[in-house]
Amino acid sequence: MSGHSKWHNIQKTKGAADAKRAQAFTKIAREMIVAVKEGGSGDPRSNSRLAAVIAKAKAANMPNDNIKRTIDKALGSGSTENYEKIVYEGYGPSGVAVIVETMTDNRNRTAGEMRHYFDKYGGNMGPANCVSWSFDKKGVIVIDNEDEDLDEDTVMMDALEAGAQDFEADGDVMTVYTGVDDVASVADKLTEAGYHLLSAQVEMLPQNGTVKLTNEDDIKNMQKMLDMFEDNDDVQNVWHNWEDAE
After folding, report:
1. Could you tell me the strand order of the sheet in which 124-126 lies?
2. Which CATH class for the 84-133+208-240 domain?
3. CA distances from 109 to 3, 31, 88, 114, 233 (A)
4. How far apart (Å, rounded) are the C-alpha atoms in residues 123 and 56?
């Protein structure tokens, strides 16, 4: 399973400051509210989308009280927050494919900001599905192995028995791949087995490997573009096929 630039994302997760963590919790909470409203239930057993968001929240160390409050808020009749999911696609420097998933209460504001970020750093925003056709949607669970010295064969067998489709070991992390609807159940089973999860969510993985940038200006602009996307409160996830450096 190639093309998943996981180490870059994991480093950001592990090195997050309090402000970044708070922003991450806010974004997850927004995603949870939409999952409850669109799934019609606050019970993850009957709402697979909510179950997946809860798995993501737990892997990000979001407190259980926060999760419960967010679900209760979404179920409350007084909740007036109406977010919609909008996906923007386009290209970064040298044709790097970029997918930006947003959750917004003002599509005009968000569309303008996304287009600005693409244009500002040498890319361009394209029409729907202009790059997503070259990505696969998969459940991705990343297990911490930095201080654990886990046995690769044991983890692989535990993952497969939990319902995983594929497994990949890469030094300080081990990555488990699942079906889109199975990420929550597999994550729960791995957590129960004692593994420390760094992330657990549905991701968009490039089908044909990653793109390397050799021009220093392109590299700087690509990183700045990604930082702008990730710092925007409306942006939930950014997927791309750039093989970024650690």
Report:
1. 124-126, 84-91, 97-104, 235-240
2. alpha beta
3. 32, 19, 13, 9, 12
4. 30
Helices (H), 76-124: 107-120
Q: Which residue has the tokens 């699942």?
A: 178
List strands edge to edge, sheet with 173-178: 166-170, 173-178, 135-144, 197-206
Cα separation, 237 vs 91, whole angstroms:
16
Specify the pTM. 0.83
Which of 33, 82, 83 shows the shortest CA–CA distance to 54? 33
SS3 144: strand
Give dist(CA 10, CA 158) in Å, integer.
22
- Cβ–Cβ contacts within 10 Å for residue 165, how many? 15
Q: Do domains 84-133+208-240 and 135-206 have the same CATH topology?
A: yes
Question: pLDDT by residue for the chain (246 residues), tens digit each?
Answer: 444 444 444 444 444 456 677 888 889 999 999 899 888 899 999 998 899 999 999 998 999 999 999 999 888 855 556 888 999 999 999 999 999 999 999 999 999 999 999 999 999 999 999 999 999 999 999 999 887 789 999 999 999 999 999 999 988 899 999 999 999 999 999 999 999 999 999 999 999 888 899 999 999 999 999 999 999 999 999 999 998 644
Residue extents of the structural domains in the chain: 6-75, 84-133+208-240, 135-206
